[in-house]
């Protein structure tokens, strides 16, 4: 650690909805199998915004948010096997390690799962301490300026994997925020063509169109009519809902053909109302998506190294804020004033 690191650590605590307090705390010391990560950047996502607003289904202040983490190793325990200075990211869900889900590689499904940026203090701090099993090296082939996007891209990777699209199928993505556009780009990497992205925001529609997707303004056209026009009257083969609202989840089911799949990638509300007849009598599948597996992180890193996001200008991808401006970062992301896909806090 540097002399500055040894003086202390800043941590941004959400003490009540829409109100942060930046505190000074001691630098954590790793246990034998732990790693202290010096956070370089931490992204803000939709679930963070729900915590910020006090509308998350179960997470409430006080809380230290932040799970989209890019950093370097500051210190490591004797058994951790990491060298100081190595670039790393943190795998956020921590399971019990012994249940069926943990043993089969799906920690995010563990009944006792704790999440960095939720039940565990997250990356909106100078330092975070994590088990060595949840600290992942970042290859030098991943551009430094894109490392903070590993986690959100892993969400898209997992969502597409759950939807299991085939190259001949027609897919729709609902929402052209970061997760929606990343999902569309992963679908393209799977070999799908003429992917449809539906949105209401003009800036997001333009961005989707510039990336070569079929952009549909559902503020000006009913989504069922739009999909009948651009795909087929029966609906799409698979629909990826990436907005996380009652309305968009219902829309996903409505525009899915009989026998097709509606995949809920967005952070859903606690309860939703759906057309049960359309689901059951249409032989449709409604598929939930929770986070990612470790393999999705590696795939995301491979995609970033291979240029998946290179068509998006950097100023369209990320807007960076100093920790002292964390309130502005969240306010801009929440209000829609953010001009890029992601707000990122620099530490």
Helix and strand topology:
Elements: H1 3-7, E1 9-16, E2 19-25, E3 34-44, H2 46-53, E4 68-76, E5 87-90, E6 93-94, H3 100-103, E7 114-115, E8 127-131, E9 135-137, H4 150-163, E10 171-174, H5 178-189, E11 196-199, H6 202-210, E12 214-217, H7 223-230, E13 236-241, H8 246-254, E14 256-264, H9 276-280, E15 285-288, H10 294-305, H11 314-317, E16 318-322, H12 326-335, E17 342-346
Parallel strand pairs: 10-11, 10-13, 11-12, 13-14, 14-15, 16-17
Antiparallel strand pairs: 1-2, 3-4, 3-8, 3-17, 4-5, 5-9, 6-7
Helix pairs in contact: 4-5, 4-10
Number of domains: 2
Termini Cα gap: 15 Å
* CATH topology category name of the largest domain: Quinone Oxidoreductase, Chain A, domain 1
Mind telling me the C-alpha Rg?
Answer: 20 Å
Biggest beta sheet summary: 7 strands, mixed
CATH architecture classification name of the largest domain: Alpha-Beta Complex
Number of helices: 12
- Tell me the total number of β-strands: 17
Judged by helices, strands and strand pairing, the structural class is: alpha/beta
- CATH superfamily membership of the largest domain, which one? Medium-chain alcohol dehydrogenases, catalytic domain
How big a fraction of the residues is strand?
25-35%
Compressed to H and E, one letter per element, the order equals HEEEHEEEHEEEHEHEHEHEHEHEHHEHE
Salient structural properties:
2 domains; 347 residues; Quinone Oxidoreductase, Chain A, domain 1; alpha/beta; six-stranded parallel sheet; 12 helices
């Amino acid at each position: 650690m540097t002399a500055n690191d040894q003086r202390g650590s800043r941590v941004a605590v959400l003490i009540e909805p829409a109100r942060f307090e930046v505190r000074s705390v001691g630098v954590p010391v790793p246990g034998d199998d732990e790693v202290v990560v010096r956070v370089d950047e931490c992204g803000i996502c939709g679930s963070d915004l729900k915590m910020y607003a006090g509308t998350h289904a179960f997470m409430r202040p006080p809380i230290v948010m932040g799970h989209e983490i890019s950093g370097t190793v500051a210190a490591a325990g004797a058994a951790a096997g990491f060298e100081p200075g190595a670039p790393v990211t943190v795998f956020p869900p921590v399971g019990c390690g012994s249940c069926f889900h943990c043993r089969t590689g799906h920690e995010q499904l563990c009944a006792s799962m704790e999440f960095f940026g939720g039940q565990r203090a997250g990356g909106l701090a100078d330092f975070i301490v994590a088990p060595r099993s949840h600290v992942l090296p970042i290859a030098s082939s991943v551009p430094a300026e894109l490392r903070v996007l590993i986690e959100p891209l892993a969400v898209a990777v997992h969502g597409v994997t759950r939807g299991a699209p085939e190259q001949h199928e027609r897919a729709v993505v609902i929402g052209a925020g970061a997760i929606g556009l990343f999902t569309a780009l992963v679908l393209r990497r799977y070999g799908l063509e003429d992917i449809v992205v539906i949105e209401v925001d003009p800036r997001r529609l333009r961005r989707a169109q510039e990336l070569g997707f079929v952009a549909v303004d559902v503020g000006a056209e009913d989504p069922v009519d739009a999909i009948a026009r651009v795909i087929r009257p029966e609906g799409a083969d698979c629909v990826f809902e990436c907005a996380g609202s009652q309305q968009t989840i219902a829309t996903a089911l409505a525009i899915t053909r009989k026998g097709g799949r509606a995949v809920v990638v967005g952070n859903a509300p606690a309860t939703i109302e759906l057309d049960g007849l359309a689901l059951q009598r249409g032989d449709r599948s409604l598929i939930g998506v929770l986070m990612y597996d470790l393999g999705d992180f590696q795939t995301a890193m491979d995609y970033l190294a291979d240029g998946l996001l290179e068509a998006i200008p950097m100023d369209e991808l990320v807007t960076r804020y100093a920790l002292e401006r964390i309130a502005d970062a969240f306010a801009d992301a929440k209000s829609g004033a953010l001009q890029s896909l992601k707000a990122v806090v620099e530490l």
